[in-house]
């Protein structure tokens, strides 16, 4: 395990800084002047004391098609790279199991714990979601993740942050910060022909009162690669710089979006005093509330779900399910000839993570003038996808 939090916490001065940089080896991401590495994982092994597996049959808010479990098939390290790899339920349990089976893992840690054939089939996919919940959380700093995205239809990789304490209440009251979300499809477009495939990634801040009274459209930013390129072809650097004065996202060093503490706070920014309004739930928090408390890191690969709306157009094969069907997972599974070949082999359908690093100012006042000041950030923020 390469986590150096204890060493880095005591780090002071340039010499220690240089040693830290040398120790982490491949210096594609490195501390900037005045910064120290406060936490990292280089994935020499998958340390389950650091990364806690979510084990659940819950299909999230988005009706996804996977069971998240703690199994070497779905999460492992190979050659210094972490793989989060979705697999087929039928591969281990047989096809008939999907139609008459009952899947339950005893180490389940979030209910529901059972996926059972009934109105729809048993979840057709097994996957992994790992978190630093209980081992590492941070408030403010620069998070850098070097990752290669999965390619394959209906895969939904994510690297994101969730609040440690839910100080303002359950989701989405205490906020959510999405460093990277993408869709693995090679050719997926909106009705207007705009790509929603693996050539594009998004970073997003989520906040609000509940599932219906919330906001993210003002705080989502995208980046698309030039035609012919996509994020599954190579490793890229996904970066979030979070200070008390600014949250900015960058890919390969290029800022794609930035948000300062808005006048009136995130309540005003999200237009939450309208439709239906109510009391500003962050009025007693800081300017950045709810993004002024510690968050932990989450990484996963989901499959299917409402992130793939019925309005999206896939080719060469259409979307194998729709959201008016009583059995979306069965529709998805029985049309696997359309999507399974796109998953490839040899880890193509895995989210691959080389490292996760978190930097913070060496001095406690180091965040003082870190507003979203640089012109690049402003320029990019101004033309973010509203
Ligand atoms: C969500 O919050 C709003 C504002 O407080 C409230 O009016 C609405 O009833 C809530 N909706 C649900 C589903 O709880
Ligand atoms: C949705 O899927 C169901 C089940 O496959 C199908 O019967 C129905 O025609 C589909 N609806 C639309 C609008 O495509």
TrEMBL record:
<dbReference type="GO" id="GO:0005975">
    <property type="term" value="P:carbohydrate metabolic process"/>
</dbReference>
<dbReference type="InterPro" id="IPR013320">
    <property type="entry name" value="ConA-like_dom_sf"/>
</dbReference>
<dbReference type="Pfam" id="PF00722">
    <property type="entry name" value="Glyco_hydro_16"/>
</dbReference>
<comment type="similarity">
    <text>Belongs to the glycosyl hydrolase 16 family.</text>
</comment>
<dbReference type="InterPro" id="IPR050546">
    <property type="entry name" value="Glycosyl_Hydrlase_16"/>
</dbReference>
<feature type="domain" description="GH16">
    <location>
        <begin position="49"/>
        <end position="364"/>
    </location>
</feature>
<keyword id="KW-0732">Signal</keyword>
<feature type="signal peptide">
    <location>
        <begin position="1"/>
        <end position="29"/>
    </location>
</feature>
<dbReference type="GO" id="GO:0004553">
    <property type="term" value="F:hydrolase activity, hydrolyzing O-glycosyl compounds"/>
</dbReference>
<protein>
    <recommendedName>
        <fullName>GH16 domain-containing protein</fullName>
    </recommendedName>
</protein>
<dbReference type="InterPro" id="IPR000757">
    <property type="entry name" value="Beta-glucanase-like"/>
</dbReference>
């Amino acid at each position: 395990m390469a986590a150096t939090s204890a060493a880095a916490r005591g780090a002071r001065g340039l010499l220690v800084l240089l040693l830290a940089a040398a120790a982490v080896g491949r210096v594609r991401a490195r501390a900037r002047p005045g910064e120290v590495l406060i936490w990292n994982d280089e994935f020499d092994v998958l340390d389950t004391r650091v990364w806690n597996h979510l084990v659940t049959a819950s299909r999230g808010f988005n009706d996804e098609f996977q069971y998240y479990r703690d199994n070497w098939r779905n999460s492992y390290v190979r050659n210094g790279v972490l793989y989060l790899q979705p697999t087929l339920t039928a591969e281990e349990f047989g096809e008939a199991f999907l139609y008459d089976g009952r899947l339950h893992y005893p180490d389940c840690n979030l209910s529901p714990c059972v996926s059972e054939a009934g109105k729809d089939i048993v979840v057709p996919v097994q996957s992994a979601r790992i978190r630093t919940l209980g081992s590492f959380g941070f408030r403010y700093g620069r998070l850098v993740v070097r990752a290669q995205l999965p390619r394959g239809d209906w895969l939904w990789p994510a690297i994101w942050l969730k609040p440690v304490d839910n100080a303002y209440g359950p989701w989405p009251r205490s906020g959510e910060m999405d460093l990277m979300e993408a869709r693995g499809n090679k050719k997926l477009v909106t009705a207007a022909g705009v790509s929603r495939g693996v050539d594009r990634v998004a970073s997003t801040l989520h906040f609000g009162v509940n599932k219906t009274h919330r906001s993210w459209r003002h705080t989502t930013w995208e980046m698309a690669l030039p035609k012919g390129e996509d994020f599954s072809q190579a490793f890229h650097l996904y970066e979030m710089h979070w200070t008390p004065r600014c949250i900015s996202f960058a890919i390969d060093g290029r800022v794609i979006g930035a948000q300062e503490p808005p006048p009136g706070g995130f309540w005003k920014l999200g237009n939450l005093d309208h439709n239906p309004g109510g009391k500003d739930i962050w009025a007693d928090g800081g300017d950045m509330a709810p993004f002024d408390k510690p968050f932990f890191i989450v990484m996963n690969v989901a499959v299917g779900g409402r992130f793939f709306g019925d309005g999206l157009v896939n080719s060469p094969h259409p979307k194998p399910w729709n959201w008016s069907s009583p059995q979306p997972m069965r529709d998805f599974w029985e049309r696997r000839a359309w999507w399974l070949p796109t998953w490839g082999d040899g880890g193509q359908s895995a989210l691959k993570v080389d490292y996760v690093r978190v930097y913070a100012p060496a001095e406690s006042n180091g965040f003082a003038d870190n507003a979203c000041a640089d012109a690049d950030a402003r320029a990019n923020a101004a033309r973010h996808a509203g």
